[in-house]
Structure formats: C-alpha cells, structure tokens
Amino acid sequence: MLFTTACGGMFEPPPPLFDSGRYNTIVVLPARVVINTGSPPFMAENSELTGKISGLAQEAVSTVMVVKGYDVMAPLDVNDKLRDDRSLEDAFMDVAMKSGFMSEMGPPPDDYEVPEGSGRKLAEALGADMIVLVQGNGEFHSFSENLVQGIFTNIISDGKKKAQSRPSFLKMELIFVDPIGERVEARMWTGGFSYTDKIIPMSRYLEHRMSRVPVRNRPR
C-alpha cells in the first residue's frame, strides 16, 4: 500500500538554467542588495549595511560559480576596472538597465545616451563570456532593536499589545547575461533565507539555492 502511494510518479529535477558548454569565464558585477532596519512606520534603508551585504553578495556568488567549475574574475579586480574606466562603468549601467537590474530606479532619463556595443565592451575588457548581475533586499533587526520596539509598543498600547519580533532575512535575484548578444540568458530568485554578514554561510546558502546553475565540465 505504501509502495503504491509513494510511486505515483518519478521525480524529475528542474532543467539547468543554461547550457554550461557555452560559457567558461564568468564576471559577477557589483551587486545591489538593499538592507532596511527599524520597524514600520520608521523602517528605512541602512546605507552602511547595504554596502556591506552588497559586497558580500558579489563575493559569495563569485565563490559559488568557482565551485561550479567556472573561471571567475576576482570581485576586487572587477570593481577596480569599473572604477578606473568611466566608459566601462557606463557600459555596465547600460547592460544592467536593459536587463532589468535595479528596476526600482525607474527608466533612464530622456537625455540618456545608450552606449553602442556595451555588452561586447564589457566582455572584451573583463575577458568574460557571461555576466552575472545580483540584486535583492533584506531586513536586519538586532535584539536591542526588537527590545526597544517591544517597550515602545507596550507603552503606547498601555500594555494591551505585545510587539512581535521581526525576523532578519535576505533574498536575491540573479540575472545571467550573455554580454555579446546583450540578452538575458536566465534569471532566478533565491527565495528568502537567514540574514548573515559572513561569507561562508552566505556562500553555502547560495550554493544550495543555485542548484539549477549547471556545473561546467572542464576539458581534459
């Protein structure tokens, strides 16, 4: 009876996000992961944590891609090249906007001049045949923040209402871009996971959620 119930159908794993044979060298461009702190109606972006977690996300995704067998340019080298060459930075922003990266910023202004061959320019300058964009958001709530919120809620409700601790979390979207064709090859959401500001736990979380990113089979 148990056998009949359990074998209603064979599990088929989801297909890989893209053909690993087409890509060898990956560049993870600067990430944008917005971190909010506080409690409604006083919640707002914490620019310091946004910068820290964005840098960590870029490094963690790069680490996972290395584990999966791809050649990956070091994030610090990527950021240095973009910072030192304004035309490369413009090319990054162009490819990013075309790919829906940082869409909360809205469409480019009317006087925005679209650079020609932005994807190809990035590919040649960075030696990459695939570009990965990382965006997302999260919340960080410390014990002291939740404690203060609980006291505040208790005071204004005259002890009739108890504040619920808000969980800290992260969630990200990864956009895989073919820079030569300037097209989005694939995109995926990580779903929410526990907030961390350490590289090893974040890399492990992302490796688990990036299971559909195919492993590159290196030629022997």
Give me some keywords for this one.
eight-stranded mixed β-sheet; 7 helices; globular; disordered N terminus
Your description of this structure?
The relative contact order is 0.20. The chain has one domain. It is globular. 38% of the residues lie in helices and 20% in strands. Mean pLDDT is 83; it is low at 1-5. By secondary structure, the protein is of the alpha/beta class. Helix 2 crosses helix 7. Strands 1, 2, 3, 4, 5, 6, 7 and 8 form an 8-stranded mixed beta sheet that branches.
In short:
This protein is α/β, with parallel strands linked by helices. The chain has helices spanning 2-6, 47-67, 75-84, 86-98, 118-126, 143-156, 199-209, and strands at 25-28, 32-37, 44-45, 71-72, 130-139, 169-178, 183-189, 193-194.
Mean pLDDT: 83
The total domain count is 1
CA-CA gap between termini? 48 Å
**DSSP helical segment count:** 7
Would you report the number of β strands? 8
Low-confidence stretches: 1-5
Class per helix and strand makeup: alpha/beta
**What is the ordering of alpha helices and beta strands?**
HEEEHEHHHEHEEEH
Radius of gyration: 21 Å
Task: Report strand %.
Answer: 15-25%
Shape field: globular
Query: What fraction, in percent, of the residue positions are helical?
Result: 25-40%
